[in-house]
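Hey, I'm writing a tutorial for new members on how sequence and structure tokens pair up, and I'd like a real worked example in the thread rather than a made-up one. If someone can provide the structure for the chain below, I'll link this post from the tutorial.
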Amino acid sequence: MASAEEYEHAPVPPAARKSLLSVAAVWFGFPMNLGNAVFGGVIVYNLGLVKGLLAILAGNLVLFGYVGALSHYAGRTGKNFALQAADTFGRRGRIAAAGLLSTVVIGWFSFQIGLTGSTLQDTLGWNPLWGALLGCALYTLLTVAGIRALAVVGMVATPLFVVLAAVAIGYGTSHGSGGDALTYQGAGSTLGFGGAVAIVIAGFSDSGTMTADFTRWSRTGRSAVTATFFAFPLANFLAYALGGVVVAIGGSADPAADGGGFLPLLTGHGPLLTAVAVLFVFVNLGSVASHCLYNGAVGWSALTPARMRPLALGLGVLGLVFALSGVWGHFVDWLNLLGVFVPPIGAVLITDQYLRRRRGPAEPRAVRWSALGSWAAGAVVAGLVHQLLPDSVDPLFGIVVAAAVYAAWDRRGTTAHPAVEPAASVTTPV
């Protein structure tokens, strides 16, 4: 059925593009999740409210520039991430970049499954295994429904998050006042401002780099950038900030570990609110999990002859296995890994797309070693910076180095070998 087509192997044609509201709903509902509230609380616990919010805002502005640039190209061409990667890294070279990210996002899917089970256990005493199993089944079915289902769940998850967070903060003010929150100075631990900014960037470096899977449905490049704005800084900042406020008012029993997770504040106030809190867990974490699984399924379907929906079912089972193994619990190490290896991929893509618009497409190749080498250079530098300068914004180092190396390599290559114009692809106006 045409309406169910997900365009895994070809650009989305102009006739199938969606409205700004629809695409914005997909992105807006993604960052508005409990996990980001947890991270926001951890940042505020370490830096204090005002300084913590500034770090969160700075990270989101970087994400907007990074993801917005990738989204603009997706809106112009209708290409998903794997198709974009083929342009930059080569037909076979894209397997390294697209294959890595399409697998990495399954780790985030697993994290949401594990978080579902543990959250229901901590707040309601549920068996975490059954909570994880139910979550996996629901989230996988939601992904199989396709891009339209992601837009619908985003429209539901976002207002539900804001309303329940406000209710939780209202209950949490019994531990402190608004004035106390503004003067909250934090614990002053080893996490500094730069490290906090890096956490915000790393938290969405994978799906942010794969933004084309969502924003390729936009009608123009500008529309895709506008849809991105609803995620970064708007929704992502709000989710982090609300978690930070929970910690600042004293609403978290263990802010160093649980951050701004506000679900416990919603329990013990009658069966109706408790039921709503349970629904919220599945809607909120399901929104995030389904987005990640969609990224993984679209990515691997573009790399193979398989279709998105069967792959989503298989990858959902794989994600459940990872979740039950306990891998999802190592989220700090996970963020460090993402911040080092992923942003240089996007930097190379952005640089290549910019150069293409200025001097025309490069000669199509199976592997473009300039792109792979630049990615490696950025990742190595980001890794070294992470080890030697632990409070730095290491993703930015990786982005800058990867972009600079690729630009220099490309300039040298175009001087020696003039570009060859390939066949035109499906595009839409800017």
